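Much of the work behind modern protein science is quiet bookkeeping, done one molecule at a time. Below is the pair of lines this work produces for a single protein:

***
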Amino acid sequence: MRKFAILIVCLLLVTFAVAQKKRHAAAAKGGLPNGAFAAIHDVSDSRIKADIKFLSSDLLEGRGTGARGGDIAAEYIANQFEEAGLKPAGDQGTFFQKVPMVGITTKSESTLSLKDPKEKLDLKQLDDVVVMDESQQATSDLHTPEMVFIGYGITAPEFQWDDYAGVDVKGKVLLMLVNEPPSEDPKYFNGNALTYYGRWTYKFEHAAKMGAAGVILVHKREMASYGWDVVRSSWSGERSYLAGDQDPKLHLAAWIQLEQAKKLLADSGQDLDQLLTAAGQKGFKPVTLPVEVTSHVESTVRPFESRNVIGKLEGSDSTLKQQAVVFTAHYDHLGYRPEMKGDNIYNGANDNASGTAMVIEMARAAAESPQKPKRSLIFAAVTAEEQGLWGSNYLAKHPPVPIDRITLDLNFDSFMPLGIPKEVTAGGYDRTNFAPIFEKTAADFGMKILPPGHPESGGYYRSDHFSFARMGVPAFSINEGGRFEGESQQWVIDHGKKIGSCYHQACDEFVPDGDYRSNAVMARFGLALGYKAGDLPGLVQWKAGDEFEKARTEAGSH
């Protein structure tokens, strides 16, 4: 009798799962060819779960860029693409695109001291400051008799803003704020939404181009959108850069704890809060600080090759198959820290074994479908996102089809296994003429479109779709919102906080009892969008006046 009861329960569960698949496939069928309907129906949450479990296992040691675990992950993904039936779209008829890189690890012998009028601050690496020499030298010594507080370190002609106006920063060390001038006007630095000018990557890049020798960014949680623990974990191990990059690099790229920055400025006769206010006003003038900077940075410099994994499904139209829709997700994470006690593996289950597993499953489902969209579909698992979007940067500059033939990039990064989502977020979708199709598809799936949370954090510029946007390709990341079928808002908040608190921490691990239907639903949704973009008469475009519209036009004119 007991066996019979168990059998009945199992049958009910299977029936429920099949019903869910049919429900979401049927919901999205409007406007989709039969091939897309078949692909959506074939997506399996159990396969996604199994892939996440493997990719985030201790065996892969956190999938570090250029490390053993990262290489195993790439081999696994390539194998899954091949088994699915994708054609290799990497180098020389393989699934791999080699990405030449240089790994830099700051040694513990490195020091940074700031001598202000009152005392000398010998800052402790990882606790008070993190330091890095981006120049790829084994040893770098820097000494300057003064420091320049340069506000937000932004040059934005379209907003009539230039923090560098009238000051020569060549060879100097700059103290700088992360984020950008506060604004409520959506036409001025996008109002509350962060632009690329507010990202730390821009600060370092631009300062180096202006000739600065070093930058010290002041960390403030509210401005960075994450705590010091994220800075420490992200900068304590090896950081990677593209090899052969000819852009200028800083000899000192650093972050400093807020309290240390306050003390330094106070000893120099300045008040950080007052400087924050002044730096947010037009006409701000840099402030020279009587602070002597001495740094000695020793680095382990390791040239290596990492790999993007790329597979292709050829489109059904003899002409349009030369164009493509691209699906991306980064497979790398932070690796492991052998010097740490206890759990020292950054497994990266949520970030981003989840998105990678979904791209693998979308590739499987699309390959199984008897009918392909008119345009080709390219599935890419990219490396080195955690190091600065380097894998997608390289892919966007060396795509398997010409960049002006890529109609859309759909990116998948970090999904929580909380069940059937009733909301979707996709910051940036509304910047394209694909917006009506996105909105109709979301409605068909029974999902409300939720504006991106915390636009002040600049999420649009922090994931791999940005690499394609910079090259002119309409691109955005897709994710769940904050409501899930059958679950209370408090339940979602509690479980979301638990997973979210593990961002870039060792506790981002596989959740055995998670509800991975969320990943399956979002994968089906992504496939529906990809098929629709693949069948459009023309290429997806940015809306007039968008910051990337010019790049799209220039790409098409080459």
User: Anything to note?
Assistant: The chain has two domains: 25-100+306-557, 104-301. The longest helix spans residues 2-28. The two ends are 72 Å apart (CA to CA).
